[in-house]
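This entry is retained here.
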Amino acid sequence: MNTAAIIPARYASTRFPGKPLALINGFSMIQRVYNQTCSSGLDYVAVATDDSRIFDHVKSFGGEVIMTSENCLNGTERIAEALAHLQSVPDIILNIQGDEPFILPEQINLVVKALQDPGTGIATLKKRIDSFDDLNNPNVVKVVTDRDDFALYFSRSPIPYKRDDKETWPDFPVYFKHLGIYGYKTKILMDIVRLPETPLQKMENLEQLCWLEHGFLIKVLETDFQSLAIDTPEDLVRAEQWLAK
């Protein structure tokens, strides 16, 4: 199956303006994401942006980049618009979020493998939570799944809630964080991008809740690899410290 990855990147971020161009040990965040994604062996990789500064920067390090509209509401819309610029439509499209500079090729390939199953239209990753900081951080999205590893719900709050024996809370083995990667069959992507907003999506500001509310299944695979997303300038400092170790 033909595979492509689009990395949506915008300059205007409420928590961290200019985040894709922020340097981590001499390399911009968007370059790190791009290089990691290219290492996975996908057929095509590109950045999709609405900002000339990001566009020019990606060009400067030899990356593929597509200019998209400023009117895209989220990364999924930006990717759907970018697809119109491709010479051929891939069977599988990956959304690698531009704030995941340490995403691993193994993680990307895990999502691709899941989408080769005819019964999977959307796939993503989760990792076990092992710290209070991640559990209580609203920028770290939590996920719960059913017995077949399909998502039941995503939230910025700790889920599930432990009603009894709070002195032992949290019981970390049941808590998972969602990682910043999605994979779609291309037809499914074009279906979900047309969906109207839903109440849960608006409340949590998580577009994947819109897909769940409209009845789409999301396969969630577990990975043991640590991924450090960058949401704030403070996260950038932690990333540099993490790299130094």
Notes: The chain has one domain: 3-244. The CA atoms of residues 74 and 181 lie 14 Å apart.
